Amino acid sequence: MAALSDNRGMRGRYRARQVINYVNLSTPLGLLIAVAGRARVRRGEHGLLYAHGYRIPFPVAGAFTVGNVVLTAHEEGYLTGALLRHESRHATQYAFCVGLPMLILYVLAVAVSFVLCGHYASWNVFERLADLDEGGYPRHPARWRRRTLE
Ligand SMILES: [Zn+2]
């Protein structure tokens, strides 16, 4: 019974995220990017949309998420398991960032991570919250840690 109501709670949250990311325009932007990249869009799990076969070589990533749209250059079957959980957390981050401001905040987080450790993801707050390991990212130590370790 608990599991059943938990399930219902999750479905409600996914549904809310889906609606919020449409209204805040991040999902429509994701769909535009998918069309520009000539990707094939289909419904996925948890209210997400999967865009396979994305053809623009930027950003350099196995997959990336804009609103509820998860985009990848790879073919059907790539968006599963840990990677999908990771990208799904990014979709939730868009909802919490009121949509498009997330893109600016994400670029700032990339800059901060780069300054701290020389890698764009290791100290990027969005990637850390989305789980570095599940996103396939390394855990570079921050520069000051490296100095004390030497
Ligand atoms: Zn990520």
Shape: globular
Question: Count of helices?
Answer: 7
Give the oligomeric state of the chains in this entry, treating copies of one chain as homo and distinct chains as hetero.
Answer: single chain
Q: How many domains?
A: 1
> How many strands?
4
Helical proportion, percent range = 40-55%
Bound molecules: zinc ion
Q: Which stretches of 5+ consecutive residues score pLDDT under 50?
A: none
Strand content: 5-15%
Give the overall average pLDDT: 93
The helix/strand series, from N terminus to C terminus, equals: HHEEEEHHHHH
Q: Structural class from helices and strands?
A: alpha+beta
Gyration radius (Cα, Å) is 16 Å
Description:
With 150 residues, the chain is of the alpha+beta class. The chain contains 7 helices and 4 strands; from the N terminus they run ααββββααααα. It has one domain (2-149). α1 crosses α3 (81-96). The radius of gyration is 16 Å and the shape is globular.
